[in-house]
């Protein structure tokens, strides 16, 4: 019987990892199944564009995996049982149970509501495609002078507010954040950001914590009401509750605790990559949930799976974090590098060049999903006769 590898999620981490594994492992020994809720690879980093009304390139997973031997299962994962090595999925046909020998958990994350009343029922978000499309439909309904309130002061809030303001100039866009918008940016980048907000006519309410959301308004901690026809909740990400509910060891925010090789510390047959993983980066800080982190965590998880299952040496992947690239609509942006202590450097690439660089990076990231071994030789490694972890593991 073949060794069954099941990959949960086909976002940046899952799709890249599955493709890479298929090119490294011998199909006589390994069977790779990918489970994803949607039939397409979704460029999540462009979902604010989709919500604003732009159309994204279609990337069907069947095409992405064509010729790789990967089995694609379009279904929603509802639970994982790591003791019995099974995953429960639901699709149009009903409930099914998949068995695995090795699991790669890469279900990503969604919007964090922080338990704020009304967010679930009344707010919109851009963390998943169905929700971005829901917001888009709502924006389509709004006439001139419709009011949009974006809640959050970090990357997604900034990108959503500027994209909506640029694509739909008739709307009145405002942003409320408990701290300072883009407060972590270097001086020049922040000045550039505030100028862009001015240009787009976005009203900014800083030090304003939204504590309740209703259909037509959001309410701050001091009681101030902000009239809003569409409240866009962009106050951070949280991983899906499936991980914690499955009995895998998680940290308080729900991310799965792993060793340096991306193996679950409680269930070493489960590997984790992307937003779902909690790991400390090379700078000593938790590795942030980002597309930029999905690459290195996937590479490490892949190296570990290949090493553990075929008896090869596991090379360590560096977990460095360089900074953020932020779009401010389609023609403006900021590329903010950070130093070794994760502090923003004083300077930053700004303007149209930064926007072009960001767009190119996103295109390369999407392209690399279907070309995962580019620059590396493809192999067909055989399954080692023992299921024990490789003795050559690099210490964490
Ligand atoms: C609007 C927006 C802009 C962003 N911009 C940037 C940026 O500029 N730079 C950056 O570094 N990061 C950015 N990010 C963050 C980045 O998108 C994520 O960190 C990245 O997508 C994480 O990759 P992942 O593979 O872990 O998860 P995802 O890309 O979210 O993939 C998870 C996959 O799992 C599937 N899935 C989830 N739940 C289930 C389930 N129960 N059953 C089956 N399938 C399921 C999803 O459909 C998806 O295909 C942005 C995010 C958003 C929302």
UniProtKB/TrEMBL annotation:
Q: Which UniProt keywords apply?
A: FAD, Flavoprotein, Oxidoreductase
Q: Name one GO molecular function term.
A: NAD(P)H dehydrogenase (quinone) activity
Q: Where are the transmembrane segments?
A: none
Q: Which cofactor does it need?
A: FAD
Xref: SUPFAM superfamilies: FAD/NAD(P)-binding domain
Source species, domain of life: Bacteria
Q: Where is the FAD/NAD(P)-binding domain?
A: 4-282
Gene3D superfamilies linked to this entry: 3.50.50.100
Q: Name one Pfam family in it.
A: Pyr_redox_2
User: Per the UniProt entry, what is one GO biological process?
Assistant: aerobic electron transport chain
- Family of the protein in this entry: Belongs to the NADH dehydrogenase family.
Q: Per its record, how is this protein called by name?
A: Oxidoreductase
Q: Which organism is it from?
A: Mycolicibacterium agri (Mycobacterium agri)
High-level lineage: Bacteria, Bacillati, Actinomycetota, Actinomycetes, Mycobacteriales
